[in-house]
Amino acid sequence: RRAMLRGATLAAPVGKVLNPNPVSVSAEEAKAGRALEIFRQESSINIVPVVDADSRIIEVVIRSPEKRKEA
Question: Which residues pair with 51 in a beta bridge?
Answer without folding.
Answer: 26, 57
